[in-house]
Amino acid sequence: MKVKKNFSGIISTLLLLMVVLTGCSSNNNKTSSGGKTADSYPTRQIELVVPFAAGGGVDLAARAVAEYVSKEWGESVVVTNKPGGGGIIGAQYALKEAKADGYTVLVNNNSSTTMYEAGNSNPTLTAKDNLFISRVAEGTLAYAVKADAPWNSFKEFTDWVKKNPEKLTWASVGPAGFSAFGVAEWLDAIGVDYTKTSMVSSEGASDSTAKVAGGHVILAVHTVGELYSLAESGKIKILAVQSSERSPLFPDVPTVEEEGFKGLTVKWWTGLSFAAGTPDEIVKKWDQAVAKMEKDEKFMKELEKIKLDPSYLNSKDFTKAVKEETERYTELAEKTGIRK
Asked: Which of 95, 109, 143, 282 is the most exposed, fewest CB within 10 Å of its CB?
């Protein structure tokens, strides 16, 4: 009996040891597999999805990113424009319809993230649908009207809007886009009812500015870079820039604070997101590539060429910034009537 008991004990011990060893092997395989995913990625073409029309800040930034990353990794990176719905059609495709395998990257900005979520009580997409990779660049907001418009200063224009809010038309990619929040914050600061003004839909900055230059819309609110071309050609004029200092692109244009308006904070940014469920190792590899990219002299010159400022935030800080901005914009949206 003693022999049988000892033999049974040995068998039990061996079985337990096999279970432990199998578990360790499984864990090691998982680690190895994850590492292998990051090491081998990418093995084929990557698609950068821009949810806005070609020619705007997000599109131009995406093309600069695509050029750098394709050379860095030796794989083709292509930009696909999917405009519509204030940026949501393209975002829906990248975050919900495409595979979460790292080969579809959303190039987003405020309009398709924080502003969209803040402006809708039942949003189709939220921050939780994004794995935020990195913030890439920022742009200074500016107010532009037609070149021969009667106002020669932002203060003059504001005084006219106070008296004629129902006559103000402005272009935006959607009722909760970047332009909408810029306009809403300004109108709230001067005591004008946002809902009395009229938004005209556009597909992006190039469309908005063309509408203003053609006299179809009174106001365009975009980044200085997006307004630069038509301003330089004399088809629109910029009344003010929304920054602490004058823009080097328009040194003769005053800031909103110089014109007597304080507390205006809306600023444009663009960054990268993956669909939820994308392997962490791939997110990290992209984040590391963007961090390196933002120290690259050639990429910096590309940003300068498209009139954007480098504004790198890593994945963790980018995610935090988006959360805080969404909360701030939700409060503004509820106060002004943007939120539906």
From this structure: 282
